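Shipment paperwork, digital attachment
Item: protein structure file
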Amino acid sequence: VTVYLITFTAGKLNLTGLHSHEPEVHVRAKKGDTAVLTCSLPALDEGSSAPQHVIEWVRQGYDIPILIQFGVHDPRVHPNYDGRVSLIRGTSLQMRGLLLEDEGWYECRILPLDKTTDETGSNGSWTLLSVTAPPVFTETSPPGVEVFVGRSVTLKCAAQGNPRPTITWSKDGRPINPQSKVKIMNGSVSFHAVSRETSGQYQCHLAIFVLQGKASETYYSYCCPPVIVIPPADTVLNMSQDAKLKCQAEADPPNMTYVWQRQGEDIYHIESLKSRVKVIVDGTLLISRLTPEDSGNYTCMPSNGLHVSPSASATLTVQHPAQVTKMPSLTFLPTGMRGVIACPIRAEPPLSHVDWIKDDKPLDLGMYPGWTLTSEGSIIIVTANDDAAGVYTCTPYNSFGTMGQSEPTTVILQDPPSFKVSPRKEYRQDVGGMLVIPCQMDGNPAPKVSWKKVGTASRSLFTVAANGSLILRPLSKDHQGEWECSSTNRVATVSVRTTVLVLGTSPHAVSSVSVIPGINQANVSWVAGFDGGYAQKFTVWKHRKDYGEWLSFSDLSTENSLLVTNLLPATEYQFSVMAQNKIGTGPFSEITTITTLDSLPVVVKLVPPTNLSINKSSEGILLWWSVPQSHSPHIDSFVVQSRLEGGEWINLKENISPVESQIFLRGLCKVNVIEDMI
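Attachment content:
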């Protein structure tokens, strides 16, 4: 575990060019808090019913005052301070919601309206406002890094705060000083070539001092964001037992708070949990009198205000007899269609079986052809008829037993929506006109009709009339395709589809382009799109990948295939097909990429070794593998390669005998997240 230590150092800010008759005042506040800047000048006409002066607060570097108050009128406030500043106690400036940008020098001025400023002194003392912000890590190295001896490595550490932290590094508790092979730059420590002596525990330190008054200094030390040392573990308990999910973390400062969530929601916001949960000081979550609803994924998140809080999760499983959750009082089935009578169940261990009662008698599914029982305990009826009507109850069981019978549900048959007027299978219409496709439904209550285009949504407008008809006006090329009319009531959804073909347009896109490569040629085939109402021809385009421009073949094909010749062997090509008719050209098809065959004889590939395994030790790593059973073609030797994650492969060992099946590699060294080596 990498430990990060943060301390603070800073000196007093000296400001030149300011002149005041009064001693300087220094106000310190934290970012987001409220500060009050006191004006050393009293109001010239306190108690007067008609104030004859103007109060101004100015800031160094600003051309205009940040606040101007004239008598009883509303103050004028600089846009950067709008809604955040006001006068209190007559002349003092209150500043809320402090920003780091608010840090600077401020002065109050009182300007009498019946006298000149030469006659009456109007400037108060300058006040320095310092806005501090606690440091937070913005970038750190992972908890551990593994690197090969001789390679370079950089450990990163960056933070922000006000005053700006100073970053230093230590190894195994001792400061690191820059050397020829060790550099510290912008908070990062870099090693030119690691050795075995480089291994160790590295710490990043941040330091800031904040001056208090004129003689004393306050020292802040922030070290480490929380590290979870005991994560919660998956737990299985019985209903009514008490649960204890441990979560312990270490941090500096150690004043941590623990937040627990279930399925991403704070446990104290869950109505069924909040009265039965408690998080004790060490982070342990206690849940009393478990119920089946308490099962779920619980996440622990400790925080001490530094950096990003870590988290760890575990699953709590509450075992209980099978239980019906909430049985509806009414179940509606569509007459003449498939229907389901559900038994909503919660069971842990899993459900073993469900017993059903219909009209106060045990239900025998063998008496009802087409009725089956699913593994979840629901009754499936292939075609619902009068046999299904009645009053049902279900009782689920698992290895713990049952929590009882469900409430009764009354099954009622209802007619699904039916088509009064259905659309035809296909409509052909010229572009630019109006197409009306009827779709009217019968039902009680009257069902609502909806339309949608199947597949890609239509970019052109369409409307649905009050009687359910689809209106396409003006008809465009984009309207072409398959459309679906559907209607739903509480028992079923019925739908019907129709195809719209728009005439007088350019062809639609070619699809399913297939290319079979040869050595110097390729056979390109495709499925033609709708021709727009006119005869269409096809142009095949090719492109040598990463070389030159796209080229088309002069021959226009009226078929759905073309043999492309004069290609180079062992070369990657891209192909696309475009259709055209007398109206114009259609869009290009999707691109298909192939590689032509090599003119050289095909060489049988070597069979690679299998079952590569690794065993690490302090001296190095041991690799072993299974030698391929097939030796055709003959194996001359093995080569072992490795790489750091995301890096390039390098040869570690060459010319290994084909009869060898293991090798020991020395010289792998840990410097603290472990990268996989293959």
